[in-house]
Amino acid sequence: MGIPVLILGRSGSGKSASMRNFGSDDVVVYNVASKPLPFRNNFTKITNTRDYDKIKKSLQNNKSRCYVIDDSQYLLAFEFFDHAAVKGYDKFTTLAMNFKSLIDTVIFETTPDTIVYFLHHTESNEFGEIKAKTVGKMLDQQLTLEGMFAIVLQTKVESGSYKFLTQTSGNDPCKSPMEMFEFSIDNDLKFVDSTIRSYYGLGGTMSVPITQKTTNKEAIVNEAK
C-alpha cells in the first residue's frame, strides 16, 4: 500500500517550489498544467500530462518510490471543461470516481515504500473554512477529498517566509501523524519525504520495494533506473 500525501495551497504560495531540493533522479513529476517549474532544475523524470490512464499506468509500473502530481486540481478542472456541454449530474459522479480511482491506484497498486504527493489548490467554503479546490458542491458531496489522505499539509507565506503547516488550526484540513512534524516546517518536499520515510521506516526514494526480497546487485541497479 503506497502513501498519498496532499499538499494544499493557493497559487504562488510555494507548492511547486517545494520540490527544489530533490535530486534529478529522486522524483517523477506529472506536470498536469504543463507549465514551467518555478526554479531551475535538471529533473530527468518530468512529464506534461493530464491523462489519468497515463499517470495510473506509470504508477502501476512503480519504477520510482517518489512521485509528484503538480496542480492535481487541474485533473478535475480540465475534465470538467471537456464535458461542460454534458447535461445532468452524472458527469460530477464520473469526475469524483476518476479522481478517487487515481488515489486508489496509489494506495492499492504501489509498494508500501512509494509516496505520491498531490500538489493541490485551495478554496474557502461558505463557512470560511479552507478546503481542497474541486469543481462545485456536487463533487464535494460525492467525494470528501481530504478524507482520503492521512497526511495533509498546507502552505503558509508570512513576511516572505514560505512554510508548510502540518496540523489544523481549526478552519483547515491539515493533519499528520503524532510526532511526525513540528507544527510549522519549511516548504521543503525533500525534507517532508525524508521525514515520512524515517517515521515509517521506508528507506530512501530509490530503494528496492520492501515487498521484494533480493540480494542480487544487478536487480537493485535495474530497479533504480
What does this protein look like?
This protein is an alpha/beta fold. The protein has a single domain, classed as Rossmann fold (3-Layer(aba) Sandwich), CATH 3.40.50. Helix content is 29%, strand content 20%. Helix 2 packs antiparallel against helix 3. It is globular.
State the gist of this model.
The protein is of the alpha/beta class.
List the helices and strands and how they pair.
Elements: E1 3-8, E2 28-31, E3 46-48, H1 52-61, E4 66-70, H2 73-82, H3 90-109, E5 115-120, E6 122-124, E7 130-132, H4 137-142, E8 151-158, E9 161-165, E10 184-186, H5 189-200, H6 217-224
Parallel strand pairs: 1-5, 1-8, 2-3, 2-4, 4-5
Antiparallel strand pairs: 6-7, 8-9, 9-10
Helix pairs in contact: 1-3, 2-3
Radius of gyration based on Cα positions: 17 Å
> According to CATH, what is the topology?
Rossmann fold
Order of helices and strands: EEEHEHHEEEHEEEHH
If classified by CATH, what would the architecture be? 3-Layer(aba) Sandwich
Strand content: 15-25%
Major sheet: order of its strands? 3-2-4-5-1-8-9-10
Discrete helix count: 6
Poorly predicted runs of 5 or more residues? 209-225
Q: What is the name of the CATH class?
A: Alpha Beta
Shape: globular
Whole-number total of structural domains: 1
Biggest sheet record: 8 strands, mixed
